[in-house]
Amino acid sequence: MRAAIPSVDEVLRGPAGQVALARHGRAATVAAVRAALAVLRARMGEGAPDRAALAEAAGTQALETLALEEAPRLRAVFNLTGTVLHTNLGRAVLAEEAIEAATRVMRQPAALEFDLETGGRGERDDAVRGLVRELTGAEDCILVNNAAAAVFLMLNTVGAGREAIVSRGELIEIGGAFRMPDIMARAGVVLREVGTTNRTHARDYEGAITERTALLMKVHTSNYLIQGFTAEVAPAELSRIGRAHGVPVLDDLGSGTLVDLSTYGLRRERTVRDALGDGADLVAFSGDKLLGGPQAGFIVGRADLVRACAKNPIKRAMRLDKIRLAALEATLRLYRDPDRLAQRLPTLRLLTRKPEEMRALAGRLLPAVSAQLGPAWQVAVAECASQIGSGALPLESLPSAGLSLTPCDGDGRAPERLLAALRALPTPVIGRIAQGAVLLDLRCLEDEAGFVAQLGALKEG
Question: Are 183 and 177 in contact (CB under 8 A)?
């Protein structure tokens, strides 16, 4: 019976084997063919299997295995969750200008740390320093790989071995178990808590300042709000206290925005310029949230403190590469034309999208989705509420619309199976379950044709 098993060479000479060799190379193809033959050998029963058929089956199996192995693990998806800046889905979608800039420096060398005027060594953050100063009013700035790194770097630079005074109500934990007390400890700073969870007063800060105090810190409670019987010290007041005692004030602004969002119909969020205007000596914020750029962390503020952060040896371990710097520079340039910013910056475009636009889109998609799912599902246009995400304006909801997919037989597990089937599409569709139905919030769907084109591949489990 084993004599019927074809050899590796026989499989490689077949049509599927030849395609696999051309696409994936000899080493990977041989390994896949051997694995396929081993499976066939284990499954063989009685009878006299056809040797040519087995060779074809082994080649086909090897080709499928190789294709699966070669598929990228980091795949583009349709974000229909209703969360615009979804941390698990990569946060901000980049503007076309940023994508083009990143692609350009990927294809050829770039003057990353080379001064074209002098011919000497340059500094990579110079690519965006002028723009950041212009847009924020900061004296100076440096870039690191995310906002958490920015917070760590400025804490370690300004406060290592000494105390940092922070309100108990601002000792945040955000996604991924990022806890401010833990970051402070790793940065070598001694945490000094003041006030209570819900109420902190100026006298609490003033009473805690000693010769061991290195800094006062304001932390943006990015993903929650404390309401009711509360009190907090305003940033400007905290800066006044810091100046009176000769203690720097650091402001972890969280998401960080460069524009007044109320101009675009959203609730106002404190801007970077606001934080600096309130007197903060250093401000840290993100590049891939409300700013709408690639992942990055900014440290802006007083020139002497920024330079001290730049000279910290840890900074080298956190620096940005040429690709992200190019994308960030292109993103920041969009802010110089505020009249067209909402059209050119995807994050702002999606956040300001009108509900009637999503409602009309849902109406156009409904027939195709309903036809694909068949009579087992009721498909309807649904009103829903989107959110900004990534800790920005945690209580702010955005009126939206989408499709509600409800199983007609009341099967409580059907929505989970449908979500899994949607995730298995060539471009996975990520939705959510709400009130026993699959909800596809259409706020972030801009490629309508691409979404419809792949519906034929939907296979509900």
Answer: no
* Domain, as residue range, for 266: 96-344
What's the rounded Cα separation, in Å, for the pair 92 and 291? 8
- Return d(Cα 356, Cα 48) in angstroms, integer: 65
How far is residue 143 CA from its own chain's centroid? Answer: 17
User: How far is 7 from 153, CA to CA, in rounded Å?
Assistant: 60
Asked if residue 150 and residue 43 are part of one domain, the reply reads no
Query: What digits encode the pLDDT tens for the residues 406-445?
Result: 999 888 899 999 999 999 999 999 999 999 999 999 999 9
- Domain boundary residue, one of 344, 364, 394: 344
CB-based contacts of 83, cutoff 8 Å, min separation 6: 89, 386, 387, 388, 389
Specify the number of domains making up the chain. Answer: 3
Q: Which two tokens stand for residue 403?
A: 């499709």
Looking at 97-101, 177-181, 224-228, which range is the least confident one?
224-228
Q: Could you identify the residue written with the tokens 């519906």?
A: 455
Clarify whether residues 121 and 228 are in a common domain. Answer: yes
Model pTM above 0.85:
yes
Amino acid at 258: L
* Alpha-carbon distance values, 181 to 79, 144, 250 (Å): 33, 21, 15
* Mean pLDDT, the chain, integer: 92
